Amino acid sequence: MATKQSRSAARLMMAPAVFLLLVWMLVPLAMTLWFSFRKFLPLRGGDLGFVGFDNYVRFISSSSFWPSVQTTLIVVGSVLLITLVLGVLLALLLDQPIWGQGIVRILVIAPFFVMPTVSALVWKNIFMDPVNGLFAHLWKFFGAEPVQWLSQASLPSIVMIVSWQWLPFATLILLTAIQSLDSEQLEAAEMDGAPVLRRFWHIIVPHLSRAITIVILIQTIFLLAVFAEIFVTTGGAFGTKTLTYLIYQRVLESQNVGLGSAGGVYAIILANILALFLMRIVGKNLDA
Amino acid sequence: MGRITLQQVAKSFGTTEVIPPLDLEVNDGEFVVFVGPSGCGKSTLLRLIAGLEDVSGGTILIDGEDVSNTPPAKRGLAMVFQSYALYPHMSVRKNIAFPLKMAGVAKADIKKKVENAAQVLNLTEYLDRRPGQLSGGQRQRVAIGRSIVREPEAFLFDEPLSNLDAALRGNMRLEISELHQSLKTTMVYVTHDQVEAMTMADKIVVLQKGVIEQVGSPLDLYRNPANLFVAGFIGSPAMNFASGATAQEFDATTIGFRPEHLKLSPEGGDWTGTVGVSEHLGSDTFVHVDIEGVGKVTARADGDISLGYGDTVFLTPDRARVHRFDVHGLALR
Amino acid sequence: MARAVTNQRKIINTVIAWAIGLLIFFPILWTFLTSFKTEATAIADPPVFLFFDWTLENYTEVQERSDYFKHFINSVIIAVGSTILGVLIAIPAAWSMAFVPSKRTKDILLWMLSTKMLPAVGVLYPIYLIFIELGILDSKIGLTVILMLINLPIIVWMLYTYFKEIPHEILEASRMDGATLKAEILYVLTPMAVPGIASTILLNIILAWNEAFWTLNLTAAKAAPLTAFIASYSSPEGLFYAKLSAASTMAIAPILIMGWFSQKQLVRGLTFGAVK
Question: Out of A126-130, B39-43, C15-19, which region has the weakest mean confidence (pLDDT)?
């Protein structure tokens, strides 16, 4: 409901944001697509011409591809599982009346605000260092041989670091969702004689299902892009090369832009499939 | 001067026509009320005049000048909204001063005008409060204050009293009427409450589904409704209707008769009925009677009448004041 | 209605919750404590928790050795700059979508969000190339623009949800009062939306401050913000726990404090209003 004047003003005022994002999306995307069809080695001869789908085939058939897919799936899957299970439990706990609730909440969400490079470095050195790390001291205290965390148990270590960073996010969103649950509904179920576990499965879980879906989708999008944690800790060694990291190495480390771009296109397609699901949920919630 | 002329003004949202082309004249200094059930297009019509919506067709003239494409700020009109629409982050003083500030009036003049308006509206002691700290009636007065300082060509009111409780509504009705008497500025007032329309208007415009059903003075509409809709909408309690054989007796498809034009008698009359609920208002009593062959009607009787539930009464309509309507619901004169 | 719980339950819950909370917070606490230890105490076995000679020398040394302050300022300029720039571009756009919605508004909003989902690594080389061409590799301005672009969808989205809560009629009233579009946005909308705008700014400064893909890949010595600066500590020869902790503490402290203030808005901002 508006007049022609306000509608044209609206179009004008929306233009800068729309234009910028359009450029931001289309220009690099077009360039990535272009490179992906060319043999492009900036340090070894530059642009060596059109190669069709060669890069796409080579990216998939390279010996690093499937391990990287596997690594990606393990990282994303494990972090999701850990953050969701612990997140639900923590949210349920924090929803209970406790003393100092505000402070506990602050303690729990703090890791989310720690920059990825800091948390990776702190975990890598102060905790996981096999000689001077806190874990090494702890292991020695119990008479055990200290673990070479980032080389012997590299993937679990990274999963642990990333889970620590994302647990607060899951907890906070699930807690918000739980708090919007009508307590009368729970009381009614209690009056009806439903035991605790049934109340959990039949009232709380369905109520949380939407929040859980959102946590899964948003975290997946961010987890697929995990970079700094690997960059700082293992640099992609010891089986911690995710798809994102593989593409990064192809592009910047081995300077094979064509190959890396083909990988980039795969990553973009993957992310878009996920984004589509997220958009549908967000869109449903939007009464614009 | 504040003469507003609508010529073939129409409005559609997408493909739905909300207001088919209509003509209307609001004279300078007139208090015009648009009344009708919710969704009748009265608010849309007001917003068209205000310039908050574009007309889909036709022209709007203010003092003979075509303003159809003029933005609201430049039409010289002021509007009071249903939700008051006060600026919550500004004090009462700043709220009232806002239109003057926008018009670039000098600071000293603004101060003087704001204080004048505050005095007229009994707001002087609240000038430094925020709208959130005021009662509903006070907020409404601030909204009015904000509109009068601009000395507009005309005031537009969009259901300004519907958020107030009944007692306050009566007071504000009087205040707005008095304001109109003292300012003599054109006012266009939208309401769904026919009591507000009857008590305040110089001229009532009855709307239904975007169509003007009738235009006239309150008593004109009351006495000579042009059709069934107006007859049923204006007046409280509503007019009684009867059709069938009873109406044919009057050479009409439908007849209507107001509660006060029915004579109630325990002894005898034209119609026999059974008494239902009686509503005692003190000065009057409204008796609901089920008349055989006519249906349920309401009759006005004296305040001290005493009829029991289920009693038999006789009713006689004042034949001179029976309204007759044809097949299309139009009044037969 | 709060559900009645026995005191005993409450005590048990409190103990468990505090234990878990402290466990989760422990790495941050430990880093904070270590930053006040000498290098020898920092790696002592068994570890020292609270009873050591507190020293500030790590902080002064980090500053002297690596010009910490320069990187801190880089972070501030990039995070605040990109956020302010984003908000200035987003306010008019959000106004349009919230108050003059059309059939396409929803599509545009969702499309904007979808640009946020674009995996950065997929467009790393093009951006790298463009930056070299424009001569803005390792420059604050380049990073500011990139971070503004990646956060713009969130800024538009958050402002949109806040603006939607402002009654239409108030803006219409200002139009009737003779306000131009500029006056309407400046004197009526913006002051009314101050809380929303503030939390949008806060959350986006946090996101920009912690962004670690573009800041790592597009900067070297000159424009490196704290994310990249801290990463340089990963080389083993320069490794000193106490100094690493001091640098880390300074890098996360301001954001941690801002984050605690914005935890409510965080949910709304990061789920695009889908969870409130």
Answer: A126-130
Q: Specify the number of domains making up chain B.
A: 2
The reported pLDDT for the residue numbered C48 is 73
C31 and C93 together in one domain: no
Q: Are B65 and B112 in contact (CB under 8 A)?
A: no
With 60 as the cut, is the pLDDT of residue A257 above it?
yes
- Does B11 share its domain with B109? yes
Please give the average per-residue pLDDT across A53-73, as a whole number.
Answer: 87
Same-domain status, B39 and B134: yes
Q: How confident is the model at residue C2 (pLDDT cuts 50, 70, 90)?
A: very low
B120 or C48, greater pLDDT: B120
What is the distance, to the nearest Å, from the Cα of residue A195 to the centroid of all Cα atoms in its chain?
Answer: 36
A28-39 burial, b at 16+ Cβ within 10 Å, e below that, comes to: bbebbbebbbbb
Same domain membership, residue B252 and residue B203: no
Amino acid C217: pLDDT? 86
Å between A45 CA and nearest CA of chain C: 16
> Which residues span the domain enclosing B57?
4-231
Do B320 and B278 share a structural domain?
Answer: yes
pTM here is 0.84
Which residue on chain C is closest to B78 by alpha carbon? C176
Q: Which phi and psi (to 5°) does residue A265 adopt?
A: -65, -40
For domain A53-284, which CATH number applies: 3.40.50.150, 1.20.210.10, 1.10.3720.10, 3.30.360.10?
1.10.3720.10
Same-domain check for residues B95 and B172? yes
Q: What pLDDT, on a 0 to 100 scale, did the predictor assign at position C86?
A: 95
Query: Above 60 in pLDDT, residue C1?
Result: no
- Distance from the Cα of C239 to chain A's closest Cα (Å) equals 9
B50 contacts C176? CB cut-off 8 A: yes
CB nearest to C176's CB, from B72, B82, B86: B72
d(CA A176, CA A91): 8
Note whether B71 contacts A5, CB cutoff 8 Å.
Answer: yes
Chain C CB within 8 Å of residue A228 CB: yes
Domain boundaries, position C224: 67-270
Q: B interface mutation test: which of A3, A4, A7 has the most B CBs within 10 A?
A: A3
Nearest-Cα residue of chain A relative to residue C232: A232
| Alpha-carbon span C112 to C94, nearest angstrom | 12
What's residue B110's pLDDT?
A: 93
| ipTM exceeding 0.90, yes/no | no
User: Hey, are the CB atoms on B71 and A3 less than 8 Å from each other?
Assistant: yes
Fill in the DSSP letter of residue A51. -
Question: Which chain C residue has the Cα nearest residue B98?
Answer: C177
B171 and B113 both lie in a single domain: yes
Of A169, A158, A163, A161, which Cα lies nearest the Cα of A110?
Answer: A169
Same domain, B323 and B247: yes
pLDDT greater than 80 at residue B242: yes
- For the beta sheet containing B65-66, the strands, ordered from the edge strand earlier in sequence to the opposite edge, are B16-26, B4-13, B57-62, B65-66
